[in-house]
Write a structure and sequence with these properties.
This protein is an alpha/beta fold. The chain is built from eight helices and seven strands; from the N terminus they run βαβαβαβαβαβαααβ. Strand 4, helix 4 and strand 5 form a beta-alpha-beta unit. The structure holds NADP nicotinamide-adenine-dinucleotide phosphate.
Length: 253
């Protein structure tokens, strides 16, 4: 018996920033549940390797280069998906940057712009391109962060852009209802490349584990399972919500 169900047979899912880490894990899970998945990131080599990896598991996958802040790349991502599969059922907007560990009041304008552009604006612009193609019953998921609830000092402006995604989820859910559901996931810390500057430090890792009730960091599979739930018909009556997947770490604004 397959470990997972087949909730996405005949469906097409786009996941941005998906050649490794949480994005890859989500694409893999949706693919194992039957979706055709469109993966992308900035580097062709990473795209090729990730597509090969997915196909080796029997997943139907298309890989494209897409730097999310590049308008032509975003348009190409949508156009090529429609050319190949003729529909879009799921979009997971997963890309983010965290270029600074400075306090907000010391952060350069160019860095503030980059954070806003990649972490928030690119998600909106991608949805503007995708919206005309979204099927009835489709689903959008933004990947925010536990850092959006109470931005920690070393990632405070990054945290604020993740807070913005909570509001964006509510606003876009209202705009896209009733045909498209829009939800958000706030992951706790997961030891990917993105978080390695924190999670690879033994003491910091232990402190993070102790902040959770479950006494462990998150795994990519935890986030993939949550995304698959929200994207599926099992969540057919859920929209405009943020699902915190952080082992019980406090999560209040
Ligand atoms: P990751 O393992 O470092 O993977 C990042 C992926 O994004 C790679 O495939 C990378 O490939 C791609 N990428 C980076 N910048 C991009 C851009 N501008 N446009 C398109 N693709 C881009 O990161 P992750 O930890 O999975 O993080 C994914 C999401 O989870 C982010 O939104 C992050 O804020 C969120 N999150 C992570 C954690 C955590 O602890 N890991 C916690 C909370 C939230 P290329 O290098 O080829 O572009």
């Amino acid at each position: 018996m397959d470990k997972f169900g087949k909730r996405f047979e005949g469906k097409v899912a786009i996941v941005t920033a998906s050649t490794q880490g949480i994005g890859f894990g989500i694409a893999e899970r949706l693919g194992l549940e039957g979706a055709s998945v469109v993966i992308s990131s900035r580097k062709q080599k990473n795209v090729d390797e990730a597509v090969e990896n997915l196909r080796s598991k029997g997943i139907e996958a298309l890989g494209l280069v897409c730097h999310v802040s590049n308008a032509l790349h975003r348009k190409n991502l949508i156009d090529k998906t429609i050319q190949r599969y003729g529909r879009i059922d799921v979009i997971v907007s997963n890309a983010a940057a965290n270029p600074s560990v400075e306090p907000i009041l010391n952060t350069k304008e160019s860095v503030l712009d980059k954070l806003w552009e990649i972490n928030v604006k690119a998600s909106i612009l991608l949805l503007q391109d995708a919206a005309p193609h979204l099927q009835k019953g489709s689903s959008v998921i933004f990947i925010s962060s536990i850092a959006g609830f109470n931005p920690p000092p070393a990632m405070s402006m990054y945290g604020v852009t993740k807070t913005a995604l909570f509001g964006l989820t509510k606003a876009i859910a209202a705009e896209m209802a009733p045909n498209t559901r829009v939800n958000c996931i706030a992951p706790g810390f997961v030891p990917t490349n993105f978080a390695s500057f924190i999670t690879s430090n033994k003491e910091m890792r232990k402190a993070l584990e102790e902040k959770t009730l479950l006494n462990r960091l998150g795994e990519v599979g935890d986030m993939a399972a949550a995304a698959a739930f929200l994207a599926s018909d099992d969540a057919a009556y859920i929209t405009g919500e943020t699902l915190v997947v952080a082992g019980g770490q406090p999560s209040r604004l």
